[in-house]
Amino acid sequence: MVGRGVLKGMWLVLREFLSTYPLGRMVLRVTGQPAGNRLVTVQYPDEKQQHAERFRYFPFLVYDQTPDNLRCVACKICEQECPPQCIHIVGPAKDEQGRPLKVHGRTYPVEFDIDTSICMSCRICVDVCPFDAIEMDNQYEMSSTERFGEMAFNKEKLLKSNEYFQQIKPTEASVVDQRLEAKKPKPAPTQPPTPPSAA
């Protein structure tokens, strides 16, 4: 039947609508449909609704211990893969031979900007980052009266600690930390020297 999908969709919308009213919940209970006890209204500025751990808004940059230990190495993969092209990265300075200058054995971005006015929160930047340097935040109170100035976040505004990431998304953060720990080079085991064999 051609209209079966349309009817099913209309029933889903009607069920969601009815579940927001006490009488509707009673009707759904009589018909055997699960209504759920969802919160309908929140006194927003005073009360804030809890978000699921998988909720995502805009990306942020993760650093370990101090902001100088930024995980991002300016590889620009996220900039290339971003569908709306809202990420802009300026790589590290270069020496006379054209090689990037390293700090503590790594390269870091000089600039890392995200224009949140065009970011669509698709999470592709997080998925393609090989260094787990960018993650999705759950802060949604970022309204501004200006469209361009306040909505373009620079590196300093994007930086958040790994501890913050562990607080907002503990499950995902533990997986990332285990993956990073496994990538760390392991020190060579120290074995006592073998004595020369007696001949």
Class from secondary-structure proportions: alpha+beta
Unreliable parts: none
In spatial order, strands of the major sheet run 4-1-6
Into which percentage range does the β-strand content fall? 5-15%
C-alpha end-to-end distance: 90 Å
CATH topology of the largest domain: the name is: Alpha-Beta Plaits
Number of helices: 7
The number of distinct structural domains comes to 2
* Main sheet specs: 3 strands, mixed
The best one-word shape is extended
Instruction: Bin the helical content.
Output: 25-40%
In CATH, the architecture of the largest domain is: 2-Layer Sandwich
The H-and-E topology, N to C, reads as HHEHEEHEEHEHH
SS elements, strand count: 6
- Specify Rg, calculated over alpha carbons: 25 Å
Mean of pLDDT = 84
At the first level of CATH, what is the class of the largest domain?
Answer: Alpha Beta
Tag the structure with descriptive keywords.
199 residues; Alpha-Beta Plaits; three-stranded antiparallel beta sheet; 11% strand; extended
Would you write up a description of this structure?
By secondary structure, the chain is α+β, with helices and mostly antiparallel strands. It is 30% helix and 11% strand. The strands form 2 sheets. Strands 4-1-6 form a 3-stranded mixed beta sheet. Helix 6 packs across helix 7 (170-183). It is extended, with a radius of gyration of 25 Å. The model has no long low-confidence stretch (mean pLDDT 84).
